[in-house]
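Many introductory courses stop at the sequence. We go one step further.
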Amino acid sequence: MIANFEETSEENIRELFETNLFGMIRLTRAVLPYMREKKKGHIFNVSSAASYSQGPVAYHTSKFAVRGFSTFLSFELAPFNIKVTDVAPGLFRTSFYNKNSMKQNLDNRIKDYDSAR
């Protein structure tokens, strides 16, 4: 869901981070032993141009976390000749922002946000 922070439940924020960050972290943990053994590898993580811009707090923060994870993991893995690249694509013509493709009912509708939503 793309919604204002105050209108988004903690449960939905956790689900977003589970998808965008923790799934990627688990996959990274799975491949690192093989890359360390070979003393080489290249991990590509996909964040988003959203990690560099303003927007809905939960979504953009989850993408910013992917970028941060990639940046700092790169430092840790350099001694093993393992590179980490954060790919941050911009907008593509998809149905992502189509009102029919995303969850519409807010967790906590706050009238003050009506004009900005």
